[in-house]
Design goal:
The complex is a heterotrimer of chains A (485), B (159) and C (489).
Chain A lengths: L4 H5 L2 H16 L8 H16 L7 E3 L4 E3 L1 H19 L12 H20 L3 H19 L6 H32 L4 H14 L4 H17 L8 H8 L2 H26 L4 H24 L4 H21 L5 H28 L3 H6 L18 H4 L1 H15 L5 H15 L3 H27 L11 H19 L2 H4 L3
Antiparallel strand pairs in A: 1-2
Helix pairs in contact in A: 2-3, 2-5, 3-4, 3-5, 4-5, 4-11, 4-14, 5-6, 5-11, 6-7, 6-11, 7-9, 7-10, 9-11, 10-11, 10-13, 11-13, 11-14, 12-13, 12-19, 13-14, 13-18, 13-19, 14-17, 14-18, 14-20, 17-19, 17-20, 18-20
Chain B lengths: L1 H9 L2 H27 L7 H24 L6 H4 L18 H18 L1 H6 L1 H29 L6
Chain C lengths: L1 H17 L6 H22 L7 E9 L9 E7 L1 H20 L8 H20 L3 H10 L1 H11 L4 H29 L1 H4 L6 H5 L5 H18 L9 H7 L2 H26 L1 H27 L4 H21 L3 H32 L15 H14 L6 H16 L1 H26 L15 H19 L2 H18 L1
Antiparallel strand pairs in C: 1-2
The chains are: A mainly alpha (485), B mainly alpha (159), C mainly alpha (489).
Chain lengths: 485, 159, 489
Amino acid sequence: MTFQTYDCLQMLPIILLSLSGIALLFLGFQKSRALLLPATLLFLVIAFVANFLDWGKTYMYFRDMLLVNNLAMIFTGVVLLSTFMVVSLSGSLADDEDAQPAEYYAILLFSLVGAIMMIGFENLIMLFVGVEILSVAMYILTGSDKRNLRSNEAALKYFLMGAFATGILLFGIALLYGATGSFVLSGIGNYAHSATNAGGSMLLFYVGMFMLLIGMLFKVSAAPFHFWTPDVYDGAPSLFTAYMSTVVKTAGFAALLRILSVSFSGVYDFWWVAMAVVTVLTLLIGNITAVYQASFKRMMAYSSISHAGYLLIGLVGLSQASKPAIAFYSLAYSLSTIAAFGVLMLVARNRPLNAAVFGDQTTLARTDEHYDAFNGLARKNPLLGFVMAVSMLSLAGIPLTAGFWGKFMVFSAAADRGAVWLLVVAVLMSAVGIYYYFRVVIAMYFREGQTDTIRVAPFYRIVLIAATVLTLALGLLPNLFQGLI
Amino acid sequence: MEGFFMAFYRMGWHRTAANYVRFIANLRSFLSLLSMNTASYLPSDYIPIFIQLSLALGFIVVTMLVTHNIGPKRHSVKKDDPFECGIPTQGDARAPISIKYFLVAILFVLFDVEVIFMYPWAVNFMQLGQEGFIQMVLFMGLLLAGFYYVIRKGVLKWE
Amino acid sequence: MLTLFLILFPIVAATAVLFSTDTIAKTAALIGAIGELVIVGVVFFTFVANDQYQFGFDYAWFGAATNGSSGVRLSGAIDGISLLPVVLTGLVTPLIILSTFKQTYTRPTSFYALILFMQAALMGVFVARDGFLFYFFFEAALIPIYFLAAMWGGENRIAVTFKFFVYTIFGSLLMLVALVYLYRQTPLVSGAHSAAIADFYALNLSAKAQGWVFWAFFIAFAVKMPLFPFHTWQPDTYVESPTPATMLLAGIMLKMGVYGLIRLILPIVPEGVNIWGSTAMILAVIGIVYGAIIAVRQRDMKRLIAYSSFSHVGLMAAGVFSRSEMGLQGALIQMLAHGVNVVGLFFIAELILQRTGTRQLDQLGGITRNTPRLTVYFMIILLGSVALPLTNGFVGEFLLLSGVYGYNHYIGLAAGLTIIFGAVYMLRMYQKSMFGQPAPRTATFVDLAGSDSYVLLILCVFVFWMGLYPASFLKLTEPAVLNLMQFIK
């Protein structure tokens, strides 16, 4: 066991993020909270730059535990960018007496470490550790609105269900180890190839594989393992919902993509039907249930389920094309989702009336997050209206936006496999999706409502504009991103 | 309709179906394997276990029956009341306990478990050498940073 | 390069209008649209009548890879088939803007900017040479028109336009699946992926694949036009939209569907058309008769024109599916003619509404008494749309009907009903609104003047130009149509 210096320089983002998380905890002891947000953003920028230092190379780090290649760097970049945007929308935390911004930021950075491990894992142990780091952080952040009953309920639900899913995941890993004698992805992949050819019993392997997949599908909220999603996303503070629905999903799909393409591609014939069924279910449940929501935030929860379905299409049609497709889709989805939540937070905060009208806000439905809250928004706040409209268009997959190319790439990957019937289902569900995404646009532009001009902090504004510009730029020039892969 | 099946066919439906059949077959052979393994043990080999089990169960059942049947039963308001150390009960049993208990308990578990890592290092202290020492210092440094954070946060203040 | 300007110029103009002030928005938009018309004019008069693509541009866009895939490209050009829709778009847009000069719309900067954005997207649809670029503009055209209709529309606008939006998006999503499928099939011929429409022509698909690609495309275009079972969004949307939006919808956007039939369906899936073309044709003819019968019963002028448009577009579709040179030529020229006529008719309905406050035929009448200009213009445009010889409608409908008749006599006869019914409901509308005793509302009717008059005058010029000298258009389109026929046979 030699302690090689390069061995610690690489995976720089993980080390930097861990250290900066600790630094933030100590920064929190200062009286003033003003420094926290800029410091977090600075740390994220440093990690972002450090992430791309290895560009163009492929390394295996920590005794073949973690892999870094271009794809992993891109996923890490997406995750870091999403976090950067979410954090920059958190300015109001500094004024909130109940909030603990230093801890929140530190937890976010720690959870990113987990996400990066999920993206680059080469060993199932790393996958498990990554999933746990990310999940535990999420359990805490979900419940961070301590005085809100719904936030508490969400945290408890998420924790119980998540712990259960982790158990299944771990069981799956154990069975896979039992079957193959290896935790290493490529080792498992070799076993899958040789054992299928040999024709021997693969019972343990298959059961392990399905348990592992179920555990991961739970994390990315694919149906029928999605039941926790609406309550958790709805109950958690919007800021962390934005984080959960983007970073956790991106990391989860990066992990699924890795394990399916490296370890299980040899037994594609065996799992594709199961995954296709999950995909169809996810698309149906996500989209159709979203139609019935009165709350925008809850709709976004179901929308995140449906987007898990579109991403799963890329996995069912597993090929080389899936990798850029899923990376691009994740980026497009993250940008629009964060922008949408950014507007939602402004709108919800600007409607203090509800507390007076409906009494105790903790127990009743949060009407300030309903569609009605957006009525007439675009009249007085053209910028917010436009940002939201572009996000919704992108989520709905309308051309001119990044979301369209995301869908296009995912669909192409599946078309390669000849799964045209899956595309037809996806397309029908996209049409359903337009229905609920456009409810917001209709409310903002065509309905009358009493909305004052909402004051938006300059930095907040810049982030919203940047997300919108990126969405449109990727919609017009998808090559910007594709050139990277 | 035929096109639909063709799509399945092209995606390897038939192979998949065959795989599922094989899966079921494997399941059966796996189960038969289990029964084969048990056959190599004679039933008499289990006798000690059965004795142990019946003794354990028997003791519980007998004690319960005996206490219920030989003790005198006298009911009164006072006697049927739940009590604790002879003091009258106060309030609900689910009374909230100060969060500090939990914090101290969880911190104890945390640090206790972390210290376990020092044992293997201590045993192999010489072999691990300087490099092992650096790693241990790093580890303890992080741990102490956490400890310092906990103290600064005032978690251990009992007021 | 000129084609690229055709798309970019309205976008620049629209952006300028968006950031101008409320007072000058109208004029700025008109200047922008006239600038575009000048470019279209240059294209029209320098277009060489052959089967080549002209004024083209071509840039890499997406998915170009080292393995030689050309991927999805930003490429567009004009040939004989796209020329007439381009001319229509260039011509009608300034007229639509001019027609609003006597009205005020709230938030005019957004209003006129959206019209110009719409123009850019429509141009894009008609010049795209890449399947996905086509799809891209096909969808992009929907956004401005949706906002135009839903923000400035009538009472029921939200529900009605939403129905329209979901219908059309649903249709075009099916087209997207078909395009993705075709895109992924291309390596079979050229060794690399390409989304160029020309490469789709060269694909050799099985009859079954062609069958379902046909339906995926057909539903997309049938919703847009609209054809018989997919038309239920149309009358309500036309009525509830503000008239400029209605003109865009009926005048130009409807032609996207017909254009798509000619550009994509016929050459890409000839075998599919062979199998299903007659079904599509029957649907189209049902639409012709059905739309006409309903139109006869309408009281609301705008609704009547909406159904007449539904009926006419059925004939265009039937002509396309006759797969004859006459049918295709007829469809191309009828696209232009119908665009001119229907814009004029909707404008007249709007003028009458402004002056009398109603579009109900039974509350109108006797307008002719003191309105010589309106009477004449209305009559000319009306005759154009009932296909009287020497007017533009005659050329198109004659060619279309001969195409359809050549395909099948009985279908041709049924389609011919369009002329009879057209005369019935159009003349009924004219008689009820213009002749007879003046109703209370029409007693003080003021004749046209200024901008309103110019719009109708220009339209009437086109009615006669196309009616008297159709060869000036037909000879430009003929080589391209003949070229296309090779792919069909």
